[in-house]
């Protein structure tokens, strides 16, 4: 065989530049990835720096970064985790020394966090809806002559017994704060109504005051603790007590409880009203 024939069959030796050019045909530049996924080039460079998403190829001459299409799925997971609040330093723990991501474990982490965020968002929506409804009701009641008729839907309350004969603002604030803490500990959402309730004990029939906070579990969940329930559609006679201090208002409500009420419940709720002037406090008192 001639020398020319041997040369014709000799394998072609590719340069580093040739291999890089051929490789780049199957890769995406960092700018293309940024446009494709809506992630800034700066963020992609930061992901590389902390070891979360390393480029599949870096041109040794230009320093340009390139990524595989397979890495786009990993990038989606990373972006989702970042949006959920997972620190990037934590994400790097899911990447091996060889740059391989444990996608399955990271997906489990992201899903758990997304479920938690969803629950928190549902609680926020419940709170906002209740405040909107409560604020609208108070705006309407403010214009009504007393006593006015008020119909409450079904309500549930966390309660704390009140052992004092009279009202003390500091003790009340401490008890109310404890109810907020308790609500969150047992997975309940604190809502709009907060105040005190004069009612008969379901077992002894003895009447007493309780500090109450409206609270309920998220839809589909059950309360892990007993709640005081008010039935749906109950009609109450309502009026407002306005004074300079919370203590002044609640003492007036306590005086009302000394009047015969039969089987009625007396409710005294703090009014959250944008029309209230500074240095004035208002309670809504409902009897029914």
UniProtKB/TrEMBL annotation:
Keywords of the record: DNA-binding, Repressor, Transcription, Transcription regulation
Transmembrane portions of the chain: none
GO molecular function list: DNA binding; DNA-binding transcription factor activity
Highest taxon, organism lineage: Bacteria
Entries under Gene3D superfamilies matching the protein: 1.10.1660.10
InterPro entries: DNA-bd_dom_put_sf (IPR009061), MerR-type_HTH_dom (IPR000551), MerR_fam (IPR047057)
UniProt domain HTH merR-type: residue ranges: 27-97
Pfam families: MerR_1
Name of protein: HTH merR-type domain-containing protein
